[in-house]
Amino acid sequence: MSVFRVLALGDIVGKESTEKVCRALPAIKRDYRIDFTVANGENAAQGNGLDRRTAETLLGSGIDVLTSGNHIWQKRDIMEYIDEQPYVLRPANYPKGTPGKGAVLFQSGGRRILVMNVLGTVYLEPLSCPFAAVEEMLDAYRGGYDLSILDVHAEATSEKLALANYFDGKIDIIFGTHTHVQTADTRIFPKGTGYLTDLGMCGAVDSILGVSVDCIVTKFRTRMPVRFENPVGAVTELNGAVFQVDTQQKRVTAIELLRKTLG
Q1: Assessment of whether the complete model's pTM goes beyond 0.90
Q2: I need a labelling partner for 9 at 20 to 30 A (CA). Which of 54, 57, 178, 250 fits?
């Protein structure tokens, strides 16, 4: 069996978490014999969103492709940068003309990795159909890749599962992001697609989804807008998963959840 291992990291939240993930990543990749790494970076900058400096730091640390979601546009300089940097994705189902793109090919270990990103439409922005967006990407890259990965940045578990069932056997690895809570439902579908509803987050343990507790409690109690802040000096938890792919049979053979404390 020819094995290819993919490390997928959940939403990285805040500056300190970004720094800790970058420091921990080389050892994790070595210990798990990782061939390719993808992470969701839409909240990696201070507060939320993603900026040029943070994206370059993450890519320079050994993350091969950054996916994103509905918070990708929070930092002003991302608009120009995302057009320049092919390995930072935004959801593919934004309207045509939106900066950036929703898919990219990455060469790794002699293999061509297709990474795709879509945004769910249940309880989120009313974008175009994610099913249609994925089909368009698969058609556009047909015959040009060896392994395919899809990040479904979505609120509803049912929407993520629907996409996974529909694309079983057409996409090798499908995982969800956005909720910042790791799920325990790793699954290999009948036609070989490896799946996890949500990778979780790489963020402060003593927080509310990576944001300072006081900010979120105030928002719920007052119903007023608040400026999101990330905890300072907090213990960080890294969440994600390792997908093992048999490249000869072209199917996922094992999925291991990751949950590591970073001081």
Answers
A1: yes
A2: 250
